[in-house]
Amino acid sequence: MKKNYFFSSVVKISGIAFFLLSASFLNAQVGSFPWIETFEDTSPTRGDWTQIQEVNAMSWNFATSPQTGGSGVTAYEGTKFAHYRADSHNFDKTKLVSPVLNLSSVSSPKISFYYRNPYWNPDQNWLRIFFRISASDPWVQVAEFHSDIRNWTSSGDIFIPNTAYQVAIECETDYGYSTTVDAFSITESALSVAENGKLSFKYYPNPAENVLHFSSNEMVHEVKVYNLLGQKVFETKVNENQGQLDVSSLSRGNYIIQVTAETGTQAFKFVKK
What we know:
The chain is mostly beta strands. Helices cover 6% and strands 48% of the residues. The longest helix has 17 residues, at 10-26.
């Protein structure tokens, strides 16, 4: 099993990150949790979401019914939801970016929401979730959904660090039916066994000292580990349903495990002691 490690100057980077995050939190638009974005016209935070059009110029909007592939479909809750029309073969890709967050008081933040991503034979859109730790830092992907979901379905728990500055919902179109998201929430949760959608990924012990054991209900292709600054500190190819990870070289603290499996990419949290 090949393993690649990357370590940076923690003192130097932590100092810079503390300054950036402190400045960001002063401008936080969401600082009380649990936070639920309803996407309704009456939502106090819907107007603080922004968009990054990465490929072409397709935009998210807030709708009462899907433009395509949703006859008779209404919002999961209330009357409106976030909607990406996806009526293009040009692989349009746009991030719907949350307001600035202050998660410093939340020890184990998790994202969850309900979504639809219907398959339009033979085309399927990609729905992805990201976070970043400042406006100038890169986005880190923590989940991907790329299967035929016609009814409102829970995303499961998607764990992010409490240093996250913003989160983003991204859709990349391949001319599937409209992709929709509703009841988007960030709450606090303790975890040791996690289920995200179809993927069940078990890992123990948590906290771990030298070895982290894992098992999954499907083939795990790759595991990456990020620290709470969003820096990748561990990466390995797996191609197994179960195994173990040598985490002895990691410093004590909290980490995000990013797991790439048959049904996509998900993220969970573990503690190194």
